[in-house]
Amino acid sequence: MFRKYYDLHVATKYSYGVDSVENVVKYAEKLGLDTIVVLDRMDSLDVLGEIKKDVKAVKSDINVLVGVEIKAENQGDLNRQINRFRDNVDILAVWGGDFEINRSAVENPRVDILTHPELKRKDSGMDQVMMKLAAENNVAVELNFREYLHSYRKIRSYVLSHMRRNVMLARKYGAHVIVASGAESVWDMRAGRELASLAYMCGFDRERAVKTVSEVPAFIVKRTAEVKNHTLKNGVKVIGV
Fold first, then answer.
1. How many whole angstroms from its chain centre is CA 222?
2. Average pLDDT value for the chain
3. Is residue 107 within 8 Å of 75, Cβ to Cβ?
4. Domains of the chain, each with CATH number or no CATH
């Protein structure tokens, strides 16, 4: 079966990454990816405009989308940034790790991805209630390959344990899980099946692990168009608008 592989989280020099948009896209081609999301943190729409110019200038056969990763101080700040960026990006992600931000993100159907909810925590960053909300609002929970890749010994075992906990909850409540590279350089990027191996280590069978980098991100990308077109309000799709 032919599959299209996605990586919905690759940073560039415009935020905490080191490579240009062009270098990221060209390396994604070498890895056989079908779609990537240039996902950067930013403070203004001006920066977003520069990223879009760079994406447009790159000649490539792969699908390159532009996203924003919001790092919020509190719920009010999160909502302000969602309102600022939502209609201007293909994918809107929220930088996870803080428990309250994690919860606010999964409560909001205008959010596409909660990135690394377990980041720098002593737990998985999610509980049963939050995973139910993620399922209801179609907010995908990310397994961040870079977090695993750059950890070691006890830290790596803790990271995997927290990710496994979130996979268990996601399976129980029907929430979407994706694996993304979280790449900060092209050397952090991985081919689709290599990314899927993280989902397999975290408790998915082989078929469902592959879906975390194919069918599930494809659904997220398709759904975001509905959100941007305002046909999705509080998790309800409006027909005939």
1. 14
2. 94
3. no
4. 6-237 (3.20.20.140)
